[in-house]
Amino acid sequence: MTDQLHPLEINPKTGEPFLRLAAPHQNIILTPPRQGDQSVLIQHMNDPAIYSWLEKAPTPYLPEHADSWIQLVKKESDAILEYLRKSAEDFPNGPLQFVNASPVRHLREVKEDGTDVLIGDVNFRRSPFEEVLDEVERKRVQEDNADKQAGDPTIQYAFGDWLAASHHGRGIMTAAIGLLMTAWGIPRMGVRHVVAHTFAGNIASSRVFEKNGFVNRGLFDNGKVVRGEKKVMTLLEWKYEDVTVS
Q: What is the model's pTM?
């Protein structure tokens, strides 16, 4: 029978699927969100080193915010995993089925005793097209993009991510994005076009994407205001054909 969860590994003790980062970050794994992640999430989302670079994180970040968020992302992850398990029954001889997102997104550091701790989040989503300055046109392309079926090579995706301040500067997010792109995005989602929108001044985040083959397209101003502060943004873009040609 075709393993529709490929290339995910399965934790033999818990049954949880995961992807493991390559050396020297082999103690870092990507897993689905878990009920119970809320307490650590609250700590990180109240750290200005993290929330200052995020658009939608409420401040202060309260337990109800964490509960709502974990419920949302866990439901999305569970739905993808259920679809893939059902696909294994419906398509026992393949092919592998395309999905709209990755079921593994929470970065965890595995300790020597086998326990792990949440240190970040990295995920694909349909693009918000922040770079489209006209609001009416932006809404139109968002809707067109959202209506496309999983695996459509014309879908524009966008990355969202954060990493615990204690783990900045180690190359962890660079490795995580590269792994998610090559192991899941390209083969299991049919990803061919991805963008990232970072706040101007977030040089470290931009470099993470550039190290993964994203091209810096420069700054743009779509009038965004975050927590009362006007934000100019950087557009970074990755296209599959650019990688395959080069």
A: 0.95
